[in-house]
Amino acid sequence: MAQNKLIVSLSPHDHAKDSVSKIMFGVVIAMIPALLVSVYFFGLDAIRVNLIAIAACIFFEWIIQKFLLKGEVTITDGSAIVTGMLLAFNVPSNLPWWIIVIGAIVSIGVGKMSFGGLGNNPFNPALVGRVFLLISFPVQMTSWPKVQVLNFAMTDAQTGATPLAIVKEGIKNGESFSSIINNLPTSYSDMFFGQMGGSLGEISAIALIIGGLYMLYRKIITWHIPVSIIATVAIFTGILYGINPDKYADPLFHLLTGGLMLGAIFMATDMVTSPMTSKGMIIYGVGIGVITVLIRVWGAYPEGVSFAILIMNAFTPLINYYIKPKRFGEIVKK
Amino acid sequence: MDIILNTLITLSLLGAVLAVILYVVAQKFKVYEDPRIDVVEALTPGANCGGCGLPGCRGFAEACVKAETLDGLFCPAGGNETMKKIAEALGLTTVEAEPKVAVVRCNGTHEKRNKTTYYDGPSSCAIEHSLYMGDTDCAYGCLGLGDCVAKCTFDAMYMDKESGLPMIDENKCTACGACVKACPRKIIELRNKGKKNRRIYVSCVNHDKGADARRACGAACIACNKCVKTCPYEAIVIENFCAYIDFEKCKLCRKCVAECPTGAILEVNFPPRKEKVENAEETAVS
Amino acid sequence: MLKTFPKGGVHPHENKFSAGKSIETIELPKQVSIPVSQHLGAPAQPVVNKGDEVKVGQLIAKSAGFISANIHSSVSGKVSKIEKILDSTGYKQTAIIIDVEGDEWLPEIDRSTELVEDIEKFTAEEIRAKVAEAGIVGLGGATFPTNVKISIPQGKVCENLIINAVECEPYLTSDHQLMLEKSDEIIVGARLLQKAAGAKKIYIGIENNKPDAIELMKKKAAKYQYIEVVALKVKYPQGGEKQLIKAVVNREVPSGGLPVDVGCVVQNVGTAYAVYEAVQKNKPLIERVVTVTGKSVSKPSNFLVRIGTPVSNLIEKAGGLPEDTGKIVNGGPMMGKAVKDLSIPVTKGTSGILIIKSDEAKRPKTYNCIRCARCVFVCPMGLEPYLIKNMATVGMYEELQNERVLDCMECGSCSYGCPAGVPLLDYIRLGKTNLNKILRSKKS
Description:
B: 3-methyladenine DNA Glycosylase II, Chain A, domain 3, 13% strand, C: Rossmann fold, six-stranded mixed β-sheet, 14 helices
């Protein structure tokens, strides 16, 4: 006993043994179904993009922490892997490697480390990178390769537009929604399983939902954000569809296409940039849903999930300030 | 050509209109401020340390300008020189204050004060103090986590790795008192800088009975009364089992330092002693 | 659906190793040190001097104020000295140290194990007086003087007496075992408390991880229509007064209020037993049941211990101190206090001694807060621990008061669940202490 000093600390003396890295690797595991689907449809290109993005994110985080901030290096906590994977999920599978690296620099350098690293970033780092790329390299970022089942040859695949872009373009040209959707090569069930053009991680709704359920089970996310986003988009587009089914796409189309599922389940639920209370989470989710539909229907871009999430990220501190949890014994004693 | 001309004209007109609006608004909502406030503020060190007890240097300047006398207003960071300048600028007089310096009254180095437990928690004295007496047996001494160092705006403090105690750079210390407020154990005291920067103080605040204090720390004041008896100027009092030297009465004769059996009384900036006394001190420590 | 409180809470591993171990009486130590402050409120005033002979049950320190409690000698012998010793908080405080000689009890104490049931003999006032005389305090750990709690202030009515047998702290089993062995006495004690407080109904709240106790108490309580045993879902911190009231009778104690504001009084089972002994057997509070447990302890046990026995004696009895001990906790793992030294005595508030292995004793490494909101979701009081921590760090005390930091009961759920390992409660406590200081100085 004499040589072993007793430890003293304040209560509690027990800990749930959960950690940041466990959470981050939980998210990585949850993203694996979507990754497999993307490999199935886009071939080895999907793996190439993922590996480059992850490696670049980890590398830049290490460089910045080690040489710029000269602080503790925390690349093992897995947050850079999550950022890298999310960035890869948000770009087309045929993106040149140097654009991915630029995306990683912006994600990690601007989106995360410039604010003080994990936990201090107001915006989702992967989305910051993605939006930067979308604005800087619009051509490369919107030439989506056509899906080819289990094609592992690294050939230049044909490119085409996403269903969202086709519909937006068609409605702009005065065609009715029903005629556009009938001419689409992809049916709704194809969209549900992922057989459509798009960023490599966003195509399969089912794989993303499986990942979301896993995260719910692990208690990494709560139901509030995904459910409120999806419900808002469904209701809002449902109203529009009810008003004029020719001019507006139906709710199911909006839910299955584009990055909505990826955004609602993986991007908006990012702990750091989402509100802290359940009420706040629902307001945040509704906000994302509304802005997404506004951009999709009336905006210049066919897709608006990334912008919607970034805009609501900016509102998160305000939501945290005004929305308080229900206190126990609310009535203050006089 | 037309486009350039049109642009130039439009922008110039716009600029002129806005300038007029701005001028009107600025005149209308002008808040009168005594120009002397700026003058006085320029004289302060501008460190915003809060040592004067007012919110920043501007607050101090406002208070100086408003006040009729400068009694009770003192800028510890700037010292007498600054106060003299401020008094001159305002046409007032100021009383010269004895310059002070912060003093850490704990000498419980790692050597002299054994760690009995291992503290596992945030590196903050305030938190460690909120429940435990710390990782040693002394409930009064320095916790060594550096809350005071963190609060020092003048870079005058640092933690000494060897002893585990905070050290004060007396040349940089302005006696603003931020560390005094930060210390949860009230160890740090502002004392007169003394003639030729010479100071004598009891470096211990342990109020336990002598035997207990001694057990906890080799450098503790054990309230043995020897210093009180030795002091020719009645500058030392023992209260609650701990000696305290009143710096107003102390004449820096150094007799008590040699008397102290635990070496709890420290002298600073004195020339080395004669052989005889040094030996006495050594035996006392060992 | 089992009842529980609605908001927040966590599920720590229960680790009730000492469950079902019958209560062993521990032999008398050679010397006991009885602190004069074993309760909330003013320390008691010693009424014995060095060299005095004392008997078991004799008053040695008198209650000094409205919120204070009497202290009795737990042994017979000679007062060797009155001096400051280390207590469980890590600070020194006055204690009466008695050298044990023999085991001579005061004659009026009834030491038989026979059940006495003379509730009619006493008026409510007499019961309260006896409880105060016996120096009984809340034995769940908060050590609030019981007589003060059951003296209902004017204008208030106590409808429900809730007996807290939840024992939601992991590891601890002393209340559980006491229920299994002294169920009849506890029922009598609860009825005495009911009479003293003037309550109409008694609820006994037990968590569902103690089915044997629930069954036994239900059987014993069947005779009385006004006693109801409520099985509760296992969830920490259900033993918190406000949470228990919410779970059992679905009333919410207002912020800054007391249970009696919603017509409830909560008492621990151990307290009910102590009240029984004090009123029916004239026995003051001189011993209590203490669980000694831990993953590395060879014989996790429940002991009946005289107040003032050094903790080291208990650990010796439970198989000695394991090699790789990292931390010793006075109380449970969630709210207990880590002790500095094994010489500290068992006091009225010691419900258990927990020995934690060195590899589990260290806190996890602290990372940046990742704003995962778990602390907000688990806080049973609906506070925002992450925000309070930040405010306490920079000293925004006015805002802290608006964030209702004083509602925090320090259950530790936030620190327990934090994936970034941030010791939230440490900072919250700091904020509370400093805010209280400011409020006190404003008042005066």
